[in-house]
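We close this part of the discussion by returning to an individual protein. The encoding preserves chain order, so positions in sequence and tokens coincide. The sequence in question and its structure tokens are set out directly beneath this paragraph:

===
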Amino acid sequence: MKTSAISLTIPSTISDVERDTGLAKETLRVWERRYDFPRPERDTFGERVYPSDQVIKLRLIKRLIDLGYRPGKVIGYSSDELQALAQKTTAGKKSEPARPHPELQTYLELCKSHQMEAFRRKLTQAMLVMGMKNFVIDLVAPLITHVGDAWACGQFAVFEEHLFTESVQIVLRGAIFSVPQVNHSNGSPRPRVLLTTLPQERHGLGLLMAEALFAAEGAHCISLGVQTPVPDIVEAARAKQADIVALSFSTTMNPRHVSDSLAELHARLPESTELWAGGSNAALRKRPPGYVHVCELAGISSAVAEWRQRQRQAAT
């Protein structure tokens, strides 16, 4: 018996869509009421399920939001119109050099041709030559930006972006594992850094890059991975005697929720534990509270040095 192509398309649950697009469940429900999109179907249990064409459109909308558009301005466009707008916007924003690293195009071509073993091997070799800090800041970060732009322009499929992300994670974890543990018996402060994201933040690549840079600075890193509830972050920080709780925030999280969660963490963490945050969320750009140290990847080295200086001054 032949199976039609349509029957092979399995609708996505709301959790699948959240994981695939980076759009929170509550955001999807609000858009459904406010903009009449998406238009989920219902399964036999009455739960929302989303056809693949709607998921594709949601991915494009999310990309345009990352590029600065408001949902209400683009949600009524077709997928083709969204794709064209993303391509036009991406091309218009390119005022900096297209290739921050001389061999950047080579890495992109390896991904596009699905030579992932060669891609990971080349990344590993680059890390050994460049050193951890330069590798993360000058190669990995620009690669992530270019892959995102290539996806917006239709040059990368979603699965190819996922292959890229998984390969970068494998290389970064291996690099972090290979960093020798620093002996702090000479009196140099650690610090002990607890790294994670909040439950609404599923993106972990930025967090992993931060962990690599902290490790390169001799910090003792304790990673909880992504999507950790606030009470568990507080409990882990106390149990592990963390000097710093470092969080990563992408544009997928509601800025107000970011601010509220940071305030709750500040109130519940030990007074001696500093709260650091990084990422592209708007809450970190518009007058962040004084109790949060906003830190770019390139600033981690100097921020750790300043933390150590403060500890030495406090001890004298």
Observations:
- The chain has three domains: 6-93, 104-178, 192-315.
